Structure formats: C-alpha cells, structure tokens
C-alpha cells in the first residue's frame, strides 16, 4: 500500500469517526480527502511520477530528475525497443527500477567482452564520441524514431554478466541502463527462487508499472549518494579481478 492510499484511508476513517461522534468534519479534512482521491486516480490511471535517485540512466535521465510516466498494461500495450520503463525488480518486488527495453520476445541479445550489445546479430547504435574516459553511442527508439544516447565508461573494467547471450521468450523483456558501466540491469539481475536458468536476468512483463513520457525538472537535493546497483557492480568487479589475479599466480 503506497503513501497516498494510506493517507486516503486514514482521512476517511477520521471522517467516519467524527460522524459517529456527531461532529462535522472540518473543511480542510474533506478537501484533503478529495485532493488525495484525485491524485490517486490520476497516478493510477492517467499519469505517474517518479524521482530518479541514481545515475544508471545518464545521460537520458539524471539523478534528481522528476519524471512523468504512463501506467501500462503490459499485456495490452505494445512495447517497443528503446522504451524506458519503470518496473519492479525480479527478485525484490519492493524495489523499483527504471531502465530501457533492449530486447523483446523472439530477440537474441548478446553481450560481448568489449561491452557491446547485439540484437539478433546487429550492434545497437553507432559510436558518436570517444575519449579516454567515455564512449558515447547513438541509437534509435522504435516508438518515435528519435535518437537516444548511451555511454560506456572506458575507465571501468569489463564485468562478466550472468550470461553472454539471452533468447527472450514471450512475456519477458531485456532491459539495460543507458549508463552501461554504472547500471544494475538484465546483465546481472537475480530472479525469484525457482526461476529457470534461461530466464535469469529477464523481466516479466507483469512487473512493468509504467512507461516514461517526459522529464519535468531536476531536484538537486533529491540526488542519492548510495546506488545499490553500482555498489553491487563494484563488488562483482573486484571479485572477478581478484579471481583473475589468483589465476595468474
């Protein structure tokens, strides 16, 4: 139960209590109930909103961005490659993520040790800018034919994913962050206990909540200093580096 739903229930109970005690609810209490119901209805059926806490979707979405999203019924709405979606984490449904859909049902996604991603044998995007720190690529969103950028951090070592290739079945999508070396996504996701091995890392459509529409503005004070995904990547990277060093001895 989210905050708005809890607030509505609390206010309604307050009104019922006042009626029971034969006291008239205040104008402010009634107004707050009405406003809360309107906000809840809009958020549930028309327009959703979120604040981005991390940099995993940079440069498209920055930490502190307030974004608007459209609630989706993934079973009815046609999803497209390049769509940015908000969803519940496969293994921890209480965690909410925002990533970009890269692979749809029927696609074969390949991730290579040079950090490139291929869909059905074709690399995503073209190199736009390159320096010692980062490489910036441009790719196409299918929904509106607009370009988006994703970046690779050339200072970060390659982190081995759970697999190097995924075949996407019906009812699932493959997602990545635009800030590839700072994103915890389908390359590394854990799934619920009992999930078949070939589904590891993939996101069930039923876990999708909404689809990104636009960014309103940036709230600098809402930026998070702790990114669980990036910290997990650091742990994996350090472990793989240590394993490699032990193997060289």
UniProtKB/TrEMBL annotation:
User: How does the UniProt record describe the way this protein sits in the membrane?
Assistant: Multi-pass membrane protein
Q: Taking the first listed entry, what is the main subcellular location of this protein, grouped into a coarse class? A: membrane
Q: InterPro entries per the record?
A: LexA/Signal_pep-like_sf, Pept_S26A_signal_pept_1, Pept_S26A_signal_pept_1_CS, Peptidase_S26
User: Which molecular function GO terms apply here?
Assistant: serine-type endopeptidase activity; signal peptidase activity
Answer whether the UniProt record assigns the keyword Membrane to this protein: yes
GO CC, alphabetical: membrane
- What keywords appear on the UniProt entry? Hydrolase, Membrane, Plasmid, Protease, Transmembrane, Transmembrane helix
What SUPFAM superfamilies has UniProt attached to this entry?
Answer: LexA/Signal peptidase
Instruction: Tell me what reaction this enzyme catalyses.
Output: Cleavage of hydrophobic, N-terminal signal or leader sequences from secreted and periplasmic proteins
The highest taxon in the source lineage is Bacteria
Top-level class of the enzyme under EC nomenclature:
hydrolase
Q: List each copy of the Peptidase S26 domain by range.
A: 30-211
- Which residues span the membrane? 31-52
Keyword Protease carried by entry: yes
Which Gene Ontology BP terms does the record give? signal peptide processing
**Active site residues according to the UniProt entry:** 56, 99
The entry's localization annotation reads: Membrane
Which EC number(s) are documented for this chain?
Answer: 3.4.21.89
Similarity-based family: Belongs to the peptidase S26 family.
**What's the protein called, per UniProt?**
Signal peptidase I
